[in-house]
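Lab notebook page, bench 4
Experiment: in silico fold of construct C2
Operator: M.H.
Input chain length: 393 residues
Purpose: comparison with the prior construct
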Amino acid sequence: MKVKRVLIGLIAIFIVISGLYAFSPQPTSTQKTSKLSDLEVSPVNATYVVIGASSITVPPNAKVVTQVDRVIKDKSSNINTNVPPDKRPTSTKDLVPFMEGARVAQLMKYANVTVIPAANVPIKKINGIWYGPDDKGNFVYELDPSKTGPLFSTPVDANNMIEVNTHGMNVMVPEAIKENASLVIACGDLRGKAKAQAYMAEHGINSYCPCDRFTSSVMPYNGTGVILGTEPIRQLKNGSGAIIGGQPIAIKLTEPIVVQTTTKTYPDQYCDTPKRFFDNLQKAYGVKLNMYVVDANVGQTDSVVAQARKTGANVIGVRVLSEADKKPVATWLRENSTHRAVLFHSAPYEPGYSLFFEFPYQVTGQDVSPKFVKAVTSSDLDSKFAEIRSVWM
């Protein structure tokens, strides 16, 4: 009888403890930690917004799912045209040597990643619009109709195709989920692509879009996976893999910012990415930035820099594609160490990408998980930033 009472007591204690655990706050996808966590406050109470502190650590031998186009082959440039779209590269020489292919090559070099091209993905036309699938066979990620052409897809019937040479986050989901990928690398130049990124991130899958025109449409975002746009890739100092991002700058919420946009279509349309990001940041977090907008197309970053000089702004948001784009930005950055640039849709192009490494303390890229920070001294911020950068090779 005594033993029975003891057992009943133990069971009761277990039930109480279990109940307390069940109703206590559990770690969630919104409780991500950062090296700035002790400085963070709500956007409405913040003095600074920090962009670029987010990062993706890529461990050795990580599974990286990629698009086929511009990574495995590029039919429009007549590169690797006879290579099967699902061929997994074993050497950086197997990759397209530019844009996403060049960034994937860095990860193969620094982290010996396993590259898994997502090929032969079914796509469907619904009410005149083409969609890519999720992992359950639902067609929900809107496609660019140009990717249904002969360079990319083969028809099944009037409303169904197979996208053989895949292009974009909007056709990456099934392969990424099936392979339990650590990282997905693909184009982010449609809202449907950003929607696919958010879905994969909710499943813990990181994504990286060097071409990041619509990536900011996921804000505010607090999932378990990290979503990055144009950002640099570096080898980790300890030699155990690579890091994408982790290159922060701070912007005082009251200081003037000059951002680029355009009203032109292809090939200039990507120059609207800077304004798109800062507009989405203001809307998502309820902040008001002191923003000057400059209409500037490819080769016209001098207009952005000229407005920065005119207004006294020390921050610009800009796209750098060519040497003509790079020269004014680099000259302006050299003039003063307080000058900072946030780059967009620039990592695919070597003139833009090189700025991350030439000005590592002044340049960052698109980070859709910005950190809002209270009033602190410059030395306090510098100390935090040094800690974030300390893992770089």
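Observations: The first strand starts at residue 48 and ends at 51. Confidence is low (pLDDT under 50) at residues 1-32.
Next step: discuss at group meeting.
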